[in-house]
Design a protein that fits this description.
This is TIR domain-containing protein. This protein is an alpha/beta fold and 122 residues long. 48% of the residues lie in helices and 13% in strands. It is built from 7 helices and 5 strands; from the N terminus they run βααβααβααβαβ.
């Protein structure tokens, strides 16, 4: 996404030793116009507190601001996504089964243009 000129907020890039993960993630989510959620086997694994918390936060932001969540499926089937979350499975998603990461980034840039250089995505 950065190669396409998009401003990206990624929690592990912004956290420093001793920082509060919750506070940094809250700030990042609150400031983001969109949340690109890459659903993968690791993301949907049991006991993934932070991924669930981030997705719940994006749903809350979306309840106020409208469409925010942009899902990407990576190495997952529709059945796996439905089992994880029927609500997120209902969303039109990009999938790495049919597109490269570069192709997905181009689609994101097209979606965000002209705001792509002005808004933050996470």
């Amino acid at each position: 996404m950065k190669k396409q000129g998009l401003k990206v907020w990624y929690d592990t890039n912004k956290l420093k030793w001793g920082d509060s993960m919750r506070e940094k993630i809250d700030k990042g989510l609150a400031k983001s116009r969109y949340g690109v959620v890459v659903l993968s086997p690791n993301y949907i694994a049991e006991h993934k507190y932070w991924t669930k918390a981030e997705l719940n936060g994006l749903f809350q932001v979306e309840s106020i601001n409208g469409k925010v969540i942009l899902p990407i499926w990576h190495n997952l089937t529709k059945k796996q996504v439905v089992e994880y979350s029927p609500i997120i499975a209902d969303r039109k998603a990009m999938t790495t089964a049919s597109m490269t990461a570069e192709e997905i980034a181009v689609q994101l840039k097209e979606l965000f243009t002209p705001e792509a250089t002005e808004k933050t995505i996470s």
